Amino acid sequence: MKSSAPSNIALIKYMGKVDGIGNKPINASLSWTLENLRSEVHIEPVKGPDYWSPLFDLKLKPHSVEKFLKHFKFLKEKWNVHENFHIKSGNTFPSDCGLASSASSFAALTLAAAEIFQKSHPQKWGADLKELSKLSRQGSGSSCRSFFSPWALWKEEGAEALDLPLRLLHAVVILENEPKKVSSSEAHKRVITSPRFSGRVKRAESRLEDLISIIRKNEWKIGRELVWEEFEDMHDLFHTSQNPFRYITAKAREVLNWSETNWKQEGHGPWVTLDAGPNIHFLFEKSDLQWAEKYMQKFKNETVIKSWKMD
Questions:
Q1: In contact, 51 and 87? CB cutoff 8 Å
Q2: Domains annotated on the chain, with CATH
Q3: Which of 46, 73, 80, 240 can pair with 194 through a Cys bridge, CB separation 3.0 to 4.6 Å?
Q4: Is residue 176 within 8 Å of residue 278, measured between CB atoms?
Q5: How far apart are alpha carbons 45 and 22 in whole angstroms?
Q6: pLDDT tens, 246-256?
Q7: Tens digits of residue pLDDT in 204-225
Q8: Rounded percentage of the chain residues whose pLDDT exceeds 90
């Protein structure tokens, strides 16, 4: 059984969890689905215990493999499955460096498991994407958004598709592809110690409401400012936690400064954001294809993954 799922980039971030509930967010989030960044999972029956092996030369730390298999066990229990399986997984992009590889990989695992389990242990909810989104969230919070495209809204238990008129071109500049020193799971724990965390929910929910309105009104420039403000807010939580840490490197800040200067000079530019990592996402209006290609020439010497191809 083979399945694949895309990553996603949140424009309104999920950072901070409700105590005692598996990856339930403290605030709602809004994401754009990244069809150009995908994970693939293969599942086949085996004798002996469940085990994992890599696809595409994927390298995972032992605790990441353990977490992956733990979620698979949770899914088996949900379907009342007792057979054992060999799980293979891999990404079309670097993992553990702030590109939400856990989102795409756990979504792909949940989809593959649902497909193979549903054949022998059918459940009424077994093919319902909203239900699968809720299950996937138990393994990786942000994975629940990867079930819906192009826009996904996640409020509590799982995500849902959100009908918004804006269509985007995406590119990510990979400045670092090594596994980050502070995992996203650890970041969720540390941010609650920041003195700025007390107002975080209110700020994020207000920006969410504003951004949805901005998208519907096609106010690109205002949207750009809000999306920038949101990622800076999240990273500020990292910098001001009791055990502070940083994902934004000097090189990343240089790129961000260039982008801001370029916008001021030209009066136009992409939406820019970062996840919990140093790699920078650029989002352009779909009608701006040639302009987007010209803009990205700045990064011709960097590793770039784009959602478009030029003739």
A1: yes
A2: 2-161 (3.30.230.10), 168-306 (3.30.70.890)
A3: 240
A4: yes
A5: 28
A6: 999 999 999 99
A7: 999 999 999 999 999 999 999 9
A8: 86
